[in-house]
Automatic annotation (TrEMBL), chain A:
Family listed: Belongs to the ABC transporter superfamily.
Keyword ATP-binding: yes
PANTHER family according to UniProt: D,D-DIPEPTIDE TRANSPORT ATP-BINDING PROTEIN DDPF-RELATED, TRANSPORT ATP-BINDING PROTEIN
Gene3D superfamilies listed in its UniProt record: P-loop containing nucleotide triphosphate hydrolases
Organism: Streptomyces himalayensis subsp. himalayensis
Domain ABC transporter: residue ranges: 29-280
Name this protein carries in UniProt: Dipeptide ABC transporter ATP-binding protein
UniProt record, GO biological process: peptide transport; transmembrane transport
Region (Disordered): 1-21, 358-381
From TrEMBL, chain B:
Organism of origin: Streptomyces himalayensis subsp. himalayensis
Listed PANTHER family: D,D-DIPEPTIDE TRANSPORT SYSTEM PERMEASE PROTEIN DDPC-RELATED, OLIGOPEPTIDE TRANSPORT SYSTEM PERMEASE PROTEIN APPC
Keywords: Cell membrane, Membrane, Transmembrane, Transmembrane helix, Transport
Protein name: ABC transporter permease
Annotated membrane topology: Multi-pass membrane protein
Entry annotated with the keyword NAD: no
Pfam families (UniProt xref): BPD_transp_1 (PF00528), OppC_N (PF12911)
Subcellular location: Cell membrane
Length: 381, 342
């Protein structure tokens, strides 16, 4: 993590730092076997449980302090559910969430209170995430009020500092959310998340509701926040380019499971899971090199199976061109495949060849923030 | 990732075009933001119908509140039978001697046939009593509706199901018929037949029965609103920071519910005025010596074939009041919810 000491406005007292002397090397957040099944009720006349949507099914990952973990995947693969489980907006069905060695899986609101201030969230829709009846000042100072934090110089001063930090005019203190644009609103959301000086921010598609031009601004803001304040991020997105720009480590999800997790360069340069490869190949190349041969494009056949009744074994097997009988009977564990780099885990019985996609390494972009990615899912002719 | 990162407090390179340009023209620098409430007030002030009906409604309330004062200045009261004390006012058949219900400089709205009471004071006291009952009922209904609606919407699940069925039953219940049928029974249990029913008992029972049947629509409306609101991300944002359910309800949800609450309340009040008058007219509720809109219309109905004046004053004033209040309710709704188009 970057150890640059944050400048004055951000250097205010570390919240409840006493209990949290975690030894170096211990991950900030550790998730193991995290499961969330939403019951499906039905039947007449007595309503009963007739099934479950397996939104998240056995996730294992960890986030180190100051690190940014990207979580990518198609719509409905359980990314947002994961974010809401980590922040404990949802109650996990199974598994364990450990924050700094403290098990918070089923902690009550009171037990969570000290941790709440350290795990914050940025939401997807800047129009829904700010209360229309509250001024910016009240929105941003609300978290401090709830947690009884009185920063030196008063809350109002702190709020003005925060507004400045996120690139807003401190004079906007008494404005209402409807007076701001989408990008500005998202900045207010960032300021609110920063108000408690968190150690971890779960950003649930923070830019996908914004214009492409504004996306870059907000991503850059988040990146500065991450570097200067040393805040760890769980960055949920469906846009591969944004994740690549923002996250040091990336986890790819498919139908409630992580199929591959690796450092950014390894994942984008050397994907081992067929799904990751298909995802990456679907990224439209905006400034394609004319000289380079057109990249191979993998078209995934069929639809994502229903999470109500996911396929046995490997969940990707129904759309995988490599699937064999083994994939249907045996669920591939998330392990380091032969030839993978350090910390590069993938869940596939037949991992892709090393450096299968090396030619695209060159286009690893600095300005790759623009250009959102939609997965191309069409039937093979 | 290649962009050199400045210190946090330094402005971001991409910011200025976004935050500076758009914010300044909207309001004077450093000024208060325009709250949704203020914007609504502005819209309301521009709505001429709304303003006029607001004045009319205000006039009725002022008259109701100042009724004793007006009566004192006017020098009469609603109980004295002027016509019988002064034989020159009523003829042999008990009707006013002067035309148009006996309107004169002494009796502005005329005098009542038979008993010879002063119509003007009777009317303003009637307005006073009717509005008192209707306002009290509206307040109670609103409070009860808010409590039940928000609780049910926020808790959901089994509570929601049970209370939802209660609301369904209440909405389907013929409350007026119920009142007509059971009120006399209730009164005969509480008051011995020899005594007169005390006015306070009538008023209290009227208010409580109208409240018991009246809270259901507002509760159901708020339940739906809360169901929609509690899934919004700002509620989740509040939860993430550790807000208690009480704080979420009072600080996050309730401020967003004042619009439907206000609209419902302004539409409910005239309804209670008419309900109360209808009950009085039908003979349950307030009865004769007590001044009341419904009682006046009941009395007027006895004489309107020979002289319509006695029907005209209470009837017209009530129509004006109810129309004005309903128009006011519409204007309030339009002002608070600019997206509604008529």
């Amino acid at each position: 993590m970057s150890s640059t000491t944050p400048p004055a406005p951000a250097a205010s007292p570390a919240p409840a730092g006493a209990h949290s002397a975690a030894p170096a090397g211990t991950p900030l957040l550790e998730v193991s076997g995290l499961t969330k099944h939403f019951p499906v009720m039905g039947g007449f006349p007595i309503r009963r449980r007739i099934g479950a949507v397996q939104a998240v099914d056995g996730l294992d990952f960890s986030v180190a302090a100051g690190e940014s973990l990207g979580l990518v995947g198609e719509s409905g693969c359980g990314k947002s559910t994961t974010g809401r489980l980590i922040t404990r907006l949802l109650e996990p069905t199974g598994g364990r969430i450990t924050y700094r060695g403290q098990d918070i899986t089923h902690a009550s609101r009171r037990q969570l209170a000290p941790v709440r201030s350290e795990i914050q969230m940025i939401f997807q829709d800047p129009y829904a995430s700010l209360n229309p009846r509250q001024t910016v000042g009240r929105i941003v100072s609300g978290p401090m009020e709830i947690n009884g934090i009185g920063p030196p110089g008063g809350r109002e001063r702190r709020v003005r500092e925060l507004l400045e930090t996120v690139g807003l005019n401190p004079e906007h203190y008494n404005r209402f959310p409807h007076e701001f644009s989408g990008g500005q609103r998202q900045r207010i959301g960032v300021a609110r998340a920063l108000a408690l000086e968190p150690k971890l921010i779960v950003a649930d598609e923070p830019v996908s509701a914004l214009d492409v031009s504004i996306q870059a601004q907000v991503v850059n803001l988040l990146q500065e926040v991450q570097r200067n304040l040393g805040i760890a991020f769980v960055f949920i997105a469906h846009d591969l380019a944004v994740v690549r720009h923002f996250s040091q480590r990336v986890a790819v999800m498919y139908l409630g499971r992580i199929v591959e997790v690796a450092d950014r360069d390894q994942l984008y340069g050397n994907p081992r899971h067929p799904y990751t490869r298909a995802l990456l190949s679907a990224v439209p190349e905006v400034a394609a090199d004319d000289a380079a041969p057109p990249r191979e494009r993998i078209r995934l056949a069929g639809d994502v199976p229903s999470p109500l009744n996911p396929p046995s074994g490997c969940r990707f097997r129904t759309r995988c061109w490599k699937a064999t009988e083994r994939c249907g009977s045996e669920s591939p564990p998330l392990v380091r495949a032969e030839g993978s780099g350090e910390g590069h885990l993938s869940a596939c019985h037949y991992p892709e060849d090393v450096a299968a996609l090396t030619e695209s390494k060159g286009s690893r972009g600095t300005k790759g923030v623009t250009g959102s990615v939609d997965l191309e899912i069409s039937k093979e002719p | 990732m290649t962009i050199p990162i400045p210190a946090v407090s330094a402005p971001l390179e991409v910011v200025p075009d976004d935050s500076v340009t758009m914010a300044e023209p909207s309001a004077p620098p450093g000024g208060e933001g325009r709250s949704p409430g203020r914007l609504a007030w502005r819209r309301f002030k521009r709505d001429r119908t709304g303003v006029v009906s607001a004045y009319v409604v205000l006039f009725f309330f002022v008259v109701a509140i100042c009724a004793p004062l007006i009566a004192k200045v006017y020098g009469k009261n609603p109980y004295t039978t002027y016509g019988q004390n002064d034989p020159s006012l009523l003829n042999d058949f008990g009707f006013p001697v002067k035309p148009n219900g006996g309107i004169s400089s002494h009796f502005w709205f005329g005098i009542e046939p038979q008993l010879g009471r002063d119509v003007f004071t009777f009317l303003i006291y009637g307005i006073r009593n009717s509005l008192l009952i209707a306002t009290a009922t509206t307040l109670l209904v609103t409070v009860l509706g808010i409590v039940v609606g928000i609780t049910v919407g926020y808790l959901g699940g089994r509570t929601d199901y049970l209370i939802g069925r209660v609301i369904d039953i209440l909405l389907a219940f013929p409350s007026t018929l119920f009142f007509i049928a059971f009120w006399p029974v209730l009164i005969s249990i509480m008051v011995s037949p020899e005594e007169n029913t005390p006015v306070w008992l009538t008023v209290v029972s009227l208010i409580s029965v109208m409240t018991a049947f009246g809270w259901a629509p507002i509760a159901r409306l708020l339940r739906g609103e809360v169901l929609a609101l509690r899934e919004r991300e700002f509620v989740e944002a509040s939860k993430v920071t550790g807000a208690s359910p009480a704080r979420i309800i009072f600080k996050e949800l309730l401020p967003n519910l004042w619009t439907p609450i206000l609209i419902q309340a302004t539409l409910a009040l005239p309804m209670f005025v008419t309900t109360e008058a209808a009950l009085a007219f039908l003979g349950v509720g307030l009865s004769d010596p007590t001044p009341d809109w419904g009682v006046m219309i009941q009395n007027g109905a006895k004489y309107y074939e020979s002289d319509i004046t006695f029907m005209l004053f209470p009837g017209l004033s009530m129509v004006i009041f109810v129309i004005a209040f309903n128009l006011l309710g519409d204007s309030v709704r339009d002002a608070l919810d600019p997206k509604t188009k008529r």
